[in-house]
Amino acid sequence: MGDNKDDHSSPKEENPVLDSETPQPGQSHEDNSLEAIVRQFQDSMSVGKQHKFWETQPVGQFKDVGDTNLPEGPIEPATPLSEVKQEPYNLPAQYEWTTCDMESDETCNEVYALLKNNYVEDDENMFRFNYSKEFLSWALRPPGYYKSWHIGVRAKTSKKLVAFITGIPARIRVRGEVVKMAEVNFLCVHKKLRSKRLAPVMIKEVTRRVHLENIWQAAYTAGVVLPTPVTTAQYWHRSLNPKKLIDVGFSRLGARMTMSRTIKLYKLPDSPATPGFRKMELHDVPAVTRLLRDYLAQFAVAPYFDEDDVEHWLRPVENVIDSFVVESPETHEITDFCSFYTLPSSILGNQNYSTLKAAYSYYNVSNKTPLLQLMNDALIVAKQKDFDVFNALDVMFNESFVKELKFGPGDGQLHYYLYNYRLQQALRPSELGLVLL
Ligand SMILES: CC(C)(COP(=O)(O)OP(=O)(O)OC[C@H]1O[C@@H](n2cnc3c(N)ncnc32)[C@H](O)[C@@H]1OP(=O)(O)O)[C@@H](O)C(=O)NCCC(=O)NCCS
């Protein structure tokens, strides 16, 4: 199950952007492509499938979809902390739990290596996420993080790290309620230990440790269909270095297209167009916090950031997160904001290239600068920074710019989930204001 679909997206074979010189805004190729039909079929199969583990968990169950008698909110009430299991779950005898100290360079290296070799791949096993150590250290140590939520499994004899799962604390607003949650991520089991039901034990253990901190809800994403997505988002890809993307098999030359026409199609100006567009700095934190708060209030589910969160999550960190503000040249007011994070992928088995440098759209706030122009400036700076591709999910208002800015739809679907929190109805991706790393 973990392997048939994942959230590592590459462009669909029939990339409409590559197929003609001028993409056709508003024309939807993605709904009737063969890939889409196959995917819908696979997804409908997963809905009919048994989920021996997930059926036992407080998550929306497939059988309850459409039942409007069930209330929105927690599925199970919080229990007194004294009733939370005090000892870790049992692992198979050859393995032991370890808490991974992400402040330790040595541990960070071990986690990095486990993920580099065993984490998410695309459907064709051509690319695998290669989160950098700096990225992991940033992603796992936000304000108020718990060391105990960075959970590893080691082989008892060799002490080799063979599995990993993490949680970080976050306040997530679901409609009118701000809920303390864990964001669970980086679930990974070594390739040699797959299909042995280790993942459910990892998930139960992180849940137990989250409960010990008196937190009862979680948010997570997966490329696989589980009970039950709160929304399903799609990846879109904007070529910045089309020649390399084609050479490594990430995208294909469109019909009736030559390489030189393709390169010309994706060419971008040398510098951003918006006056006052500049890198975010520490002193922008209060203004960016206000901008983001107001902006994210429009979505049904979104993080509820305070200034400490913004300082951590949105201040630029080299090779990890890039953020830009638009400062009005006249009033010096901060009017707009955009950001993307750096997540390279290893290119598996290519003679000429080993790494695909990808930027992922993060949080963007358009007030005065049209979103299209703001995102075009984001593409320009990403190109300047030598990214090969710029990726965006169709969450928030991203659908409004992808076609015009020459993104092509990917084959990757990303399903969003909440643990122990029911929504009466699934959301449209545009109603979601949350990006997980
Ligand atoms: C995801 C992964 C840890 C699952 O481990 P596995 O050995 O394939 O599966 P196991 O036998 O241990 O467990 C299977 C159970 O885990 C569930 N599961 C699989 N992938 C899952 C995911 N990404 N999130 C939550 N549950 C998942 C399965 O649905 C199944 O439960 P079910 O019977 O209720 O449906 C493993 O395949 C892996 O490391 N894959 C590469 C990295 C990856 O995709 N990570 C997840 C990113 S979202």
UniProtKB/TrEMBL annotation:
Residues 74-232 form the Glycylpeptide N-tetradecanoyltransferase N-terminal domain. It catalyses: N-terminal glycyl-[protein] + tetradecanoyl-CoA = N-tetradecanoylglycyl-[protein] + CoA + H(+). Pfam families: NMT (PF01233), NMT_C (PF02799). Its EC number is 2.3.1.97. Adds a myristoyl group to the N-terminal glycine residue of certain cellular proteins. PANTHER family: GLYCYLPEPTIDE N-TETRADECANOYLTRANSFERASE 1-RELATED, N-MYRISTOYL TRANSFERASE. It is an enzyme of class 2 (transferase). This is Glycylpeptide N-tetradecanoyltransferase. InterPro entries: Acyl_CoA_acyltransferase, NMT, NMT_C, NMT_CS, NMT_N. Residues 1-15 have a biased composition (Basic and acidic residues). Belongs to the NMT family. Residues 247-428 form the Glycylpeptide N-tetradecanoyltransferase C-terminal domain. GO terms for cellular component: cytoplasm. It comes from Linum tenue. Keywords: Acyltransferase, Transferase. GO terms for molecular function: glycylpeptide N-tetradecanoyltransferase activity. Residues 1-41 are annotated as: Disordered. The keyword Acyltransferase applies.
